[in-house]
Write a structure and sequence with these properties.
single chain, about 60 residues, mainly alpha, 3 helices
Amino acid sequence: MIEDDYKLLIEEYKNDILLSLRMGVLRVDELKYLLEHFKDEENYEACQGLSNAYVLFKEELDEY
């Protein structure tokens, strides 16, 4: 189903970006550039995954 594929792509992007943030490969201040790139490419699944990853990462930081 198309909707399931869409959700899977968003989840994969979220997991990849969240892992990169946790490992320090990607910094929060760099997300705006990545988001611009995804928008330019019209990759809206990646935009949503990035947004979801940022929210989860911020929640993790707020816990400490």
